[in-house]
Amino acid sequence: MREKLFVGLDVHKRNISVGVAEEGRTGEVRFLGDIENSPIAINGLLKKLAKQDRQIEFCYEAGPCGYGIYRQIIAAGHDCCVIAPTKIAIAPGERVKTDRRDAQRLAVLHRAGELTPVWVPDLKHEAMRDLIRARMDAVRQVTTARHQLSAFLLRHGRVYAPNRKPWTKIHSRWLGSQNFDEPAQQIVFQDYVQAVWNAVERRDNMVRRIEELTPDWSLRDFVYALRCFRGLDLVSAATLAASVGDVTRFDTSRQLMGYLGLTPSEYSSGGSVRRGGITKTGNREARRMLVEAAWSYRFPAKVAQHKARILEAQPKPVRDLAWKAQERLCKRYRTLEARGKKSTIIAVAIARELAGFVWAVGHEMRPLSE
């Protein structure tokens, strides 16, 4: 068996610092220097290390540079893993941080097996994830544009009827009736209104694109199955699926709950046990989708008309899980409410249990897609 060489890459936008660790606890650790962050330079590094006739295992932290380096290394026939930065152990007394030390530390920790790899999506899944993230950016843009317009109107004493819901057709007609005597203010008002319209159009266009491309997605069956759950439509189900990815990589539902940051934090030492709020690790948008869906379980369990049409197209195990979730979570909501729990705490508790049903559906859909 060939000896192993562990390589740590500290990746930045323009350069990559390279550290290596020989196999064995006392193996030599050295710094190879910096290379340019480009496919040509990485290919040169791979050829240089391959001359040593060893099994090479690379690692680098997940970050804004994406998975291009991972795919290039895998295509060259070497092992590589992308590491979760938040899971890397840091010594309490560590006060020196340089690219050189980071690269060497990655190589040493990789050799010791103390790094936690992240799941790397395929190209099509990453493309869908980018589309869904663009839709989330568009939603935030709509919110920002509306706030700017509302703030401008408020500064000039233009307040919409307090008992009516804004951003409806009636509200649009009210906006159309607003005029300002000063030409500069009229220009600003029209610009703010146009910004709102453009943002809404962009958001709606992203939603249409998601609906069009979901049938060609590898996780389409999982997305359609998630729509059976109360509070999840196509967009929220696609957002959840894109954020979580392959659910079958989680052996238990508790692992998925922990990945989504829905488990309580805890600090216990000796006889002292202290538990706090949820950890809020993992993807924020996926957690938000579940919490928003959890609010719908405050109503009695029933199958709405639009959900009935969705359920008809799904296999019986998925329909049974969706109904079981309704019965359990609606009852759970009323039980916690009777105990005097805050509604926000109840929603998070329901979201945590809903994540368990999401895990069950993901494992149920696996044999159907294979």
From TrEMBL:
InterPro entries with a match to the protein in the record: Transp_IS110-like_N, Transpos_IS110, Transposase_20
GO biological process, one term: DNA transposition
UniProt-recorded Gene Ontology molecular function terms: DNA binding; transposase activity
Pfam families: DEDD_Tnp_IS110, Transposase_20
Alphabetic keyword roster: Plasmid
Domain called Transposase IS116/IS110/IS902 C-terminal: residue spans: 229-298
Domain Transposase IS110-like N-terminal: 7-154
NCBIfam families: transpos_IS110
PANTHER family assigned: PUTATIVE TRANSPOSASE FOR IS117-RELATED (PTHR33055:SF3), TRANSPOSASE FOR INSERTION SEQUENCE ELEMENT IS1111A (PTHR33055)
Protein name: Transposase
Phylogenetic lineage: Bacteria, Pseudomonadati, Pseudomonadota, Alphaproteobacteria, Rhodobacterales
